[in-house]
Amino acid sequence: MKFRYSKWTERSRTDDQRLEQLTSLFSYLLVQTSGDAEEALEWLRQLAAEHGLFDENLGPDDLLQKLKDEGIIAEAGNVHVLTTRGVQRIRSDALNEIFTSLRKGDIGGHEVPRTGRGVDRSSDVRKWTAGDSAHNIDLSSTLKNTFKREGIEDFTLAEEDLEVYETEHLTSCATILMLDISHSMILYGEDRITPAKQVALALSELIMRRFPKDYIALVVFGDDAKLVSLNELPFLNVGPYHTNTREGLKMARMLLRRRRSANKQIFMITDGKPSAIFDDAGRLYKNSFGLDPRIVNKTLDEALACRRERITISTFMVARDPYLINFVQELTRANQGRAYYSTLDNLGEFIFVDYIRNRRKKFGAS
Fold it and tell me: Rounded distance, CA 78 to CA 119, Å?
């Protein structure tokens, strides 16, 4: 067996580190290929040939074996397919990728800046009240109160002696992620759907990992709206659809109405103005030219309905179409929500800063 040695530099990587980076690259390619493992592998081979990603110590077979060993892909007949564990790896990689763009301090928890009945203890204590958990009793303070009242020799415990640790008040949130899958997301050769999906994957992973009690669901909208499993996210494709924003908001509102969470919100990622609605007879009315008052007014009515039900809409625009900007300004005004004009590169940062920061600010209100 022969070994080739070279001078070590700070950029030198072990074969395991290179394999890990190639696995993350493969994960990103899976988002672009809508979960087609065979196509992603072929793209990776082409990139490897063009940029010298493999050498005599590390080849494509090594990567393929790693992907199989980790359960990211599996063989089904003569082809490789993405597994459930592979979908989780995509979400995790998307989260890690987007978090590299965030500054320190951007990420926080759901704690409110006041105490209450929660889970995490604080250092403060207070008098016990009915409903407090027994495991939060501060034994030292309680015994001190008892001894002060009766002395050490005549020990009796009274209700007024009990003191408990304060706990940080934690709250939950129900979130609907709305993803535009209309044709404009790939119009004129610009890929807007891949980074949008990557952000959706990262956001879902963030919530499931850090806030497991939170509710999150995915609604995709084109001509119509549809509830989609989060595990289907990597496999989503853009279709020959118009943009029925009203139907997406309506479905999101119906889903949130069933949740008991005090805090409800919609994150909508879109690149186009609304261009379709269903009329009273259930027929699809569509108009792609300008802002159709009929379509816009019905969509704004839905935004108002969300506002009445205390559902905040945050719109993230991945385009700067003047018609889109004008519409979103009206929608934000009607809902009293938030809107972000962003490029595809910083879309992830806007979403994550908004999700964390606004929850903390909103929940701090009395």
Answer: 50
